[in-house]
Amino acid sequence: MASSNQSQVTSHESPVVHPAVIGLEIHVQLRTRTKLFCGCAPNFGDPPNSAVCPVCLGLPGALPVLNAEAVALGVRAALCVGASVQRESSFDRKSYFYPDLPKGYQITQQAHPLALGGGISIESSGRMVKIMRVHIEEDAGKSLHGGVPGSEDWTCLDFNRSGVPLAEIVTAPDLTSPEEAAELMRLLWQKLTFAGVTTGRMEEGALRCDANISVGGKGRSEIKNLNSFRFVEKALAFEASRLAAANARGAEPARETRLFDPDSGETFPLRGKEALEDYRYFPEPDLPPLVIADGLIEEQRHLMGEQPEARRERFERDFGLSPYDAGVLTAQPEAANYFEAAVTSGAAPKAAANWVMSEVLRAAKAHSGEWDRLSVQPEELAFILGEIASKRLTNTFAKELFAEASTSGRKLRELILEKASAPSGGDEALRSLIEEVLKSETAAVGDYRAGKQKAFGFLVGAAMKKSGGKADPAAIKKILEEKLKT
Ligand code: ZN
Ligand code: MN
């Protein structure tokens, strides 16, 4: 019950509405081939504890070796948010006890982070949200509570995620509403996936957010580990009204760390914040200072490629797309790349845009977002659109073929040869089909010749039916008219 606290606000006192002050700490999983300090694979979904070694298990005496690929992607993440990369940064140990943290500390960057400053402009309000810092750190392992068959009341530990490289992006407390916070996270997701910094797979935890919020300058809650845009908005909305209600009562809300329960839509306390503040940071003795060469920054600026806003503007300008269409197509890099490849293969931009926004997006969703597994690739979409434009395929039949190719995984050209060669393959096939219709529907032909216009529609329908819905109605009408004249 989101309003259990609010209901205590009595109606005669009009509560002063204070704006929320929100800041986000966003953890991004970097798209590397190996973990941050060892050669283990950082892949999601591998069998538990199959990608571990003495380093990421934190065994005594094991030494970390910094992954250059993670540093490069960290630099790219910093450039995406306009932060300035520091020539020299360093690593620290953040000590805390938790079963999924076998070393008893996390290697992070505290005193001298990889990058400082920067900002992201919120599109809906035009406001600039400042970025405080960007740093690199390792992820912890994962506790599986009760999810293991045969030992439902146990907590099991999976260390595959231990040592996975993260970039942490920290905003200033510049956000004023839950909606704005969710929008910032979406914008960040877009920037980072377009730049190839992360896979962006939210269901795998590629982007996770800790949100700090206070209302009316009092209380401050930190909501941990929000792993979807919707959860960010819902959790903050709940927390904002909870803190506002406490203010209205004159209560001083505790400074605490909370968790969000998606089922109830509520946040609940995890632990008191004051008990946790002492992480006893100190410099990591096993890693030298991190020195970034000018060349690396320039290289990463180049590899970052075109950012989503620039791409959207280019789609509008070069392809004549509406702002809405350009926005949908540049909402994710795969859609933008697919569309652009189809156009490069000769597709008309407007038709390609319509198909990508409907049929292709639907197919990609059915393939869990794995665009490279789509059976109809951009060149083939361009081919279908060409067939439609030259009236060899109807739009409806082309969509059927596309859907069938997508679900069966069969090659589109094969399907077209097999199914469409007869009626839509050319005039000859269609002419003989229509002749057959005229032979069998003698009554309708008689009616038409006697002046009944309705009979013409009937004959078109009969021919359409005989073609299995694959023929172009306009072509049927044309041939029918010719044949009925004689
Ligand atoms: Zn390892
Ligand atoms: Mn962190």
Brief descriptors of the model:
17 strands; alpha+beta; single chain; 3-stranded antiparallel beta sheet; 486 residues; binds zinc ion; 10-stranded mixed beta sheet; 15 helices; elongated; 40% helix; binds manganese (II) ion; disordered N terminus
Radius of gyration: 30 Å
The separation of the N and C termini measures 77 Å
Taking the sheet with the most strands, its summary is:
10 strands, mixed
Mean pLDDT: 90
Low-confidence runs (pLDDT<50, min 5 residues)? Answer: 1-11
Explain what the structure shows.
This protein is of the alpha+beta class and about 475 residues long. About 40% of the residues lie in helices and about 20% in strands. The termini are far apart. The model is unreliable at about 1-10 (pLDDT under 50). It binds zinc ion and manganese (II) ion. Manganese (II) ion binds next to loops.
